[in-house]
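Troubleshooting: if your tokenizer reports a length mismatch, compare against these two reference records.
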Amino acid sequence: MIPRAVGVATCWAATLSLACGCANNPFRTAPPAAPSLEPPLGVAAPAHTLPVPSPARPSYADVDGRQLQAALSRSRQETDVMQDEITALRDQLASTSSQLARLRSGSMAADGTAPPPAGMVDAVAPPSSPAAMQAAVAQLAIPGVDARVDGAVVRIDVAAERLFEPGTAAIVPGGAAILTQVAGELERVFPGHFIGIEGHLDTEPLQNASWGSAHQLTAARSAAVFDFLTARTRMHEGQLFIVAHGANHPLVSNATAAGRSRNRRMELVVYPERAAAQR
């Protein structure tokens, strides 16, 4: 038989073990784990939990004031140089305009010609007088080609159909013969004069898709005539220039087929000024 004191001690020990939560107590439950605030992988954290960066402020601690001053000085110098260049260009333009105005003015010398402007003696010979230009037109012998006086210039019209294949800038054999004849007469009657090669069209849509506009086609035709005259005749590049008018300057109305055919033309425009002789 167990003594009474031992039994009482054993009961108190068991009771204390249950009350204090012995590690080996099979009836004890673990405390709940604290929730984690970290978002799972692949999930972004809520915006309100992210740190807000403070705005960066510019710092001028490392800027050298002497460098800024030097850069400003260089900028002012470059501006002054540009202003000087603009002034020089304006003066040159004004001088050229004045020379051209004197060249085209009606004041003539006793022999009926005006002296070339200063600075253009080597580039331009004395122009012919209006009366001389008018008289020279009557000396031109170009069958089937219209020549007329238009103010201070002489215009020689050649129908585009006689010079080019339809819708192209290719010169036909008959057109080559016409250009050769015209060039010979111009050299005989207006030797050395400046001549503009001006292309014109009507308002009909272009049939050849190679050209995006009437100006492109007239430019190509003017260039073709320029190349022919400089390669196959005695005319030189210094007296010729090309102009592409497109359909901007019709002679007659484009309302009829005859009018449109009349407006499709090449004009060789003879100016009173003469280029210097080629050395």
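Reference record two:
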Amino acid sequence: MGSLTLNKIEKSFGATKVLHGIDLEVKDGEFVIFVGPSGCGKSTLLRIIGGLEDSSGGEVIIDGVRVDAVPPAKRGIAMVFQTYALYPHMTVFDNMAAGLRQMGTPREQVDARVAEATRMLHLEDYLKRRPAELSGGQRQRVAIGRAVVREPKLFLFDEPLSNLDAALRVNTRLEIARLHRQLNATMIYVTHDQVEAMTLADRIVVMNAGHIEQIGTPMELYNSPANLFVAGFIGSPQMNFLDAAAMGVTGAKTIGIRPEHLTVSPDSGSWKGTLVHAEHLGADTNLYLDTASGTITVRAFGEVRYPYDSVLYASADPRHIYRFDEAGKVIA
């Protein structure tokens, strides 16, 4: 239960085409995350899978059955939104049970499913509370629990953590990861946050301007990006891009070096620069150097301190220099 196939999915809003023939296979039990900048089409694609948006062409197939004309309630999916969408006048228990009651599920099954979901999500102490009495993270866990009790073929998450503060995002991310392992369910998740994608996904789908740029495991995308866009989107801080000719590199238009693959020295190195900013993060330090080729970022392990305007030299690990051609594609 829970496989998904997308064949040539297209979507236009009037004369504006936002999805350009999307093909994707999701296996039963996979956790697949769509990432990309705002406006790339990732949420539109998720809504098409869920039946909340009609495609302009192509096929959506769930468990071998084409569902393009099937209403959302009949697709065997459950969606979790960033806005929670809870009934304010209902208790946590009633919010989680409402969908099952509407489907005519026997009371014993409703009670059993809600009890299991609340156990998984650590909500046992909140069943009699209403949404206004809960924190943002607790409300999101209730919204997730409401999806869990339906026992869907597919879980669809549309930026579910974007309204939470940093600490709650981390905690709720752990809850979702644990839930996926417990349920062994198929989950499709949309986010603009590549850290969420790297820490949760079995596979990541990187989208840009309605196209899929690359699909792969988090480390495949990190270590072997297909092009400049993926290389720049995956990894934090962002990969440094430098003009290949200016750096004396032949056969390429651009070279890319991740900040963590650079070292810095006050004495000597490949590129001379001036320290213009430093981010002291405790576990590591991000140093920003103005060089003749532009500003580059160096990620140094631990606490590293140099005075501002210091002259420093950066050097790259030659095993981790990426070369890109005129079209932005990686050169193997």
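Descriptive notes for reference record two:
- The mean pLDDT is 92.
- The chain has two domains: 4-227, 237-324.
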